[in-house]
Amino acid sequence: MEGYKDIEKSIIKKYRKEIWSRFIKAVKEYELINENDKIMVCISGGKDSFLLAKCIQELKRHGKIPFEAYYVVMDPGYTKENKNLIIENAKKLNVPIEIFESNIFNTVFEIEKNPCYLCARMRRGYLYSKARDIGCNKIALGHHFDDVIETTLLSMFYGSEVKTMMPKLYSKNFEGLELIRPLYLVKEQDILSWKKFNNLTFLNCACRFTENCSLDNSDSKRKEIKCLIKELRKINKNVDNNIFKALDNVNLNCVLGVKKNGIYTSFKDEYDK
What we know:
Number of helices: 11
Radius of gyration: 20 Å
CATH class: Alpha Beta
Distance between the termini: 69 Å
Largest sheet: 6 strands, mixed
Strand order of the largest sheet: 3-2-1-4-6-5
Structural class: alpha/beta
């Protein structure tokens, strides 16, 4: 049996509860994939995006909803070694990728202030443009459960607001395009376990900036939050699940204020009514 078939089988069988079932639950619960969707699956070269690609392949092959999927790699200026690793993994996993170049790294390399923020915005713009060019209505990214929790705490601790990474959202700048996150309920520890079980090696960080310098401030804070959650799990093993549930269980009678569509409302506005 070809190696990629064993990898596919591991998703459906060995990691059915941890990965496949959670992937399917997110797709159904948040209505991420609909009939006749054309989805551009974005592959960065890391474990998350390649697992996403395989889950999408399995759903397309065995699911009841007809849709199309295109597996796209944006090359922002990878080294030859990193680019070759992505190509080799795509062959190993039987994912038919298309690579297009953006050379973003060259554009932002000389920028001293917030190069990672600018890089992320430019990457997103290139991906939306590519999706539009190939006729897709959705873009699938590989963000997982831990990304959601970390983003929530980052917003609270450093942004002074309660907000999270949504399972889907419409693009503000590209009309008709929607971003979806099908791995929304899959935990990173299970993705790492799947990777180890199949003896796979993916890109960890291919960023040119972090090769010769310390982490960007936002990345170091995410690492800080990741370590904090790890410590909190030692006290309460369900702490991350509780944080996630809290985002779906907000008691508006017990918050000082809320903001929707940029408009702020204080509890005082309704207090005496």
